[in-house]
Design a protein that fits this description.
By secondary structure, the chain is mostly helical. It is built from 5 helices and 2 strands, in the order ααααββα.
Length: about 140
């Protein structure tokens, strides 16, 4: 009769080794991600558009027009902060306001073609910066 005792120990050692491999991979990934994020932040061009503004443009482009109050809730900011963000976007012609058809006291905000263009350019720049940062981690680069 063959004992299962040895197999159990090997199975436990294999599980321990697997957990160690996973932990080592997680540590290496965390380090690499930290380096990439730092490089992206260093390369980030400071422009006239805030991160909040970009986020609102992206949300409007993806989900369609919405009210300032709903946008504030979705972005998890105070209505006053959203009002400031929207005022800047309206001033630059990146979003437009129209009265709500069902409630004249409210307004509905939508992205303009200029806003879509700025958002597309911004995304293209971001992808380029990410690709450049990843070059440092590509073998042979």
């Amino acid at each position: 009769m063959v004992s299962n005792h040895g197999r159990g120990e090997r199975g436990e050692r294999g599980a321990e080794r697997g957990a160690q491999d996973t932990a080592a991979l997680a540590a290496a990934l965390r380090l690499a991600m930290g380096r990439i994020v730092r490089r992206l932040r260093q390369a980030h061009a400071v422009g006239y558009l805030t991160l909040s503004g970009v986020s609102v443009l992206a949300r409007l482009a993806a989900a369609g027009p919405d009210s300032p109050g709903a946008l504030a809730e979705l972005e998890r900011v105070r209505p006053q902060a959203m009002a400031t963000t929207l005022a800047g976007l309206v001033q630059r012609g990146l979003v437009g306001r129209a009265p709500d058809a069902t409630d004249g006291r409210r307004s509905i905000v939508s992205i303009t073609e200029a806003g879509r263009t700025v958002l597309a350019e911004r995304r293209s720049e971001s992808v380029g910066r990410l690709a450049h940062a990843l070059d440092d981690f590509t073998p042979g680069a």
